[in-house]
Amino acid sequence: MQLSTDEPWDTMKAQILTKISISLNPPTIDFNDYNIMFHITHILPKPGLTLATELDFMIMNRRAHNMKAEDPTINLLVVEKKLVGEGKENEGQDDDQEKVKSNGKKVSICALIYSFT
Q1: What is the pTM of this model?
Q2: Is residue 83's pLDDT more than 80?
Q3: Measured distance CA(54)–CA(8) in Å, rounded
Q4: How many domains does the chain contain in total?
């Protein structure tokens, strides 16, 4: 996927959700159901930084602006969150005590290429 660095955060989220929908085809899709990380080869090693909020997006944009490449490439890793005990009856746990772990389906958006405008 390719975005301009002046695109808003909501556009970025929509692009990621589109790629998730194409790759995983979930019955319902919610941005909060996924852990998203970004890394930049030779600059920001894996696992990279989280991409969950507009502030994270601004940090990623700042790093893209500092890159010397003509078409800076940023790698995204999307991992579906799974609830502990999903599909099982609650065994004495309250809803507010459910914990999230990241061992769900993964989709790697290999490259996010930014164009500077």
Answers
A1: 0.69
A2: no
A3: 9
A4: 1
